[in-house]
Amino acid sequence: MDISNSLTLTALITRPEPHASQLATQLKEQHIDCLIFPVINILAPPALTEINEHIKDADQYDWVIITSANVLRHITLEPLQRLKHAKVAAIGQKTQHALEQHAIRVAFVPPEPAGSDALLASDTFQSLRDQRILLLSGVGGRTHLTKSLQSQDNHVVKLECYQRIRPKAPRKESILSWQRNPFMIIICMSNESIDNLVALVGNKTRTWLLNQPLLVASQRQYQHAVAIGFIKPALVVKEISDAGIIHTMLAWQQSERKKHE
Fold first, then answer.
1. pLDDT tens-digit profile of 86-100?
2. Rounded distance between C-alpha atoms, residue 138 and residue 22, angstroms
3. What pTM, to 2 d.p., does this model score?
4. Which of the listed CATH numbers 3.40.50.1820, 3.40.50.10090, 3.90.1150.10, 3.30.450.40 matches domain 10-40+168-259?
């Protein structure tokens, strides 16, 4: 592939809205073209009323762990007010920022690259014993965090505050527009997003897709992409945030251009 300094980098953003559009705005400021195709839609869970009622007792727990900013999408005003009086741990800077926008003080954020593994490896949570923990997350997902906390004799109540739904497949015209970009990277920030993207493009486009570079959130996700059949080494962000994504993309863009000078 001939990459010149005049060729514009394009990002295919697969994150849910509104995160996809927010990231696209920042990438465009760095002269990176953006195509948006969310492969996960975030919806309210079936038992939303019961969940909001339970969160009203958040201040009765020793810790409230919030795994994603998506948790806050469907929580009503009174439960949000109760979270202001709870001891809250947020996974990821985006989650921390979303909480602080609601004036909810965050007592702990695991170090980057933030995730459930980083939280469990921290001194604060490695030593946690006999605590009542309220875990606010999405439907499904990994059970590792819950099981690890329970193995330390903690009482964990998990509430699934949102659900992730796979959208409809992209139109043929959309896929053709993707393929017209010779200098493109695909942003997928979870294993689920990679799986959904592969399923949604279908068999006819699979070979092309597996030859595209990915930007991912963790080494675990990198390994998942390899196992599926992605050929090019994925880029792993050092910081799971919009700033971390942008920094990684700009560094990669510069590196690729130097190779073809």
1. 999 999 888 999 999
2. 21
3. 0.78
4. 3.40.50.10090
